[in-house]
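Here's what a typical entry looks like (DUF397 domain-containing protein):
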Amino acid sequence: MTGIPLVWRKSSRSSGEGGNCVELALTTGAAFVRDSKNPDGPVLAWAPAALGALLGRVKDGRFDG
């Protein structure tokens, strides 16, 4: 993926009880997100600014139903 080993961090809000958990790995030029229950599965890659914008909108409640 990047040629360098990624260091994955699990969300501090993950319960560890089979819930919706994600892990994040950061490099200088990208942010990577994966499902913690499927570490060998697909990985989303984001430009750090784009991921920051998405997280800001989530925190603002823009996706609340």
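The helical segments are 48-59.

More examples are in the samples folder.
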